[in-house]
Amino acid sequence: MATTYIDDVLIKLRRQYSLDETVSALNKRLTEIEIKLGQANSYIDELEYEKNQKSLKNGGQEWFEKYSKLKERFEKLEKELNSDDKYFEISYKNKLLIVQNKKLTNQLQKNK
Question: What share of the chain is helix, strand, coil (3-state, %, to 5)?
């Protein structure tokens, strides 16, 4: 057994590897690392998917209620804005009518 240990481990430690052997060993190690990285990314994606599913199940209704309330508030504000526009439009028309009324009264007074 001592000879197999010496043959397998110690001789390999002292051996000078050729460039091809070194490159192939590095490529093999790189491939192993890329596989592990792919597995880790897949696991992260799986965990994020589960997190999103749980948040939709647990918090989805709460989020929808908040969204509905915000939508109602936005619609109310939009209605008020539109009513303000109508108010300004009516007040502008009213001012024009007042100006026209003054012109007509001035013309009537001149004609008398």
Answer: 95, 0, 5
Please identify every stretch of the chain with a pLDDT value under 50, giving residue numbers as ranges.
1
Distance of CA 88 to the CA centre of its chain: 39
Per DSSP, 105 falls in state H
Cα dist. 11→16, 20, 22, 29, 79 in Å? Answer: 10, 19, 16, 21, 86
pTM of this prediction exceeds 0.70: no
Q: Any residues with CB less than 8 A from the CB of 17 and at least 6 apart, and which? A: 25
Q: Is 18 helix (H, G, I), strand (E, B) or coil?
A: coil
